[in-house]
């Protein structure tokens, strides 16, 4: 059974930082492109960041560039998202996503809530 379990969310003041983790079991993420996707209250899913299977290539949506850093530790089968300079617009449920580029197999975590508020 494949599981992606996010953690690290919470309530943080504007300007603060959080580090999200996504621990995988049942698959080896080393062969998957990994994404972070978020959903703000009342809005649709928004792609946030992507990292390729070996961690050599990353990309970000414009609104988080320079503030968020995606990384992965394939030995620990874990994906990370370091979020700095958080603002209220970053408030959302954050999901990790694993996608195999050839087979198209795709898995999602259950999400972790991030709330940025004073």
Q: Keywords, please?
A:
single chain; 118 residues; mainly beta; 7-stranded mixed β-sheet; 0% helix; globular
Describe what this molecule looks like in 3D.
The protein has 118 residues and is mostly beta strands. Helix content is 0%, strand content 52%. The protein has strands at 3-7, 10-12, 18-25, 33-39, 45-51, 58-60, 68-73, 78-83, 92-99, 106-108, 112-116. It is globular. The N and C termini lie far apart (40 Å). The relative contact order is 0.32. The model has no long low-confidence stretch (mean pLDDT 97).
Concise structural overview:
By secondary structure, the chain is mainly beta. The chain has strands at residues 3-7, 10-12, 18-25, 33-39, 45-51, 58-60, 68-73, 78-83, 92-99, 106-108, 112-116. A hairpin with a 6-residue loop joins strand 5 and strand 6 (58-60).
Overall pLDDT = 97
Low-confidence stretches: none
Helix content: under 10%
Strand composition percent:
over 45%
Task: Count helical runs.
Answer: 0
Main sheet makeup: 7 strands, mixed
Rg measurement, Å: 13 Å
Q: What is the multimeric organization of the chains shown? A: single chain
The overall strand count is 11
Distance between the termini: 40 Å
* SS class: mainly beta
* H/E topology pattern: EEEEEEEEEEE
Estimate the global geometry from the Cα principal axes.
globular
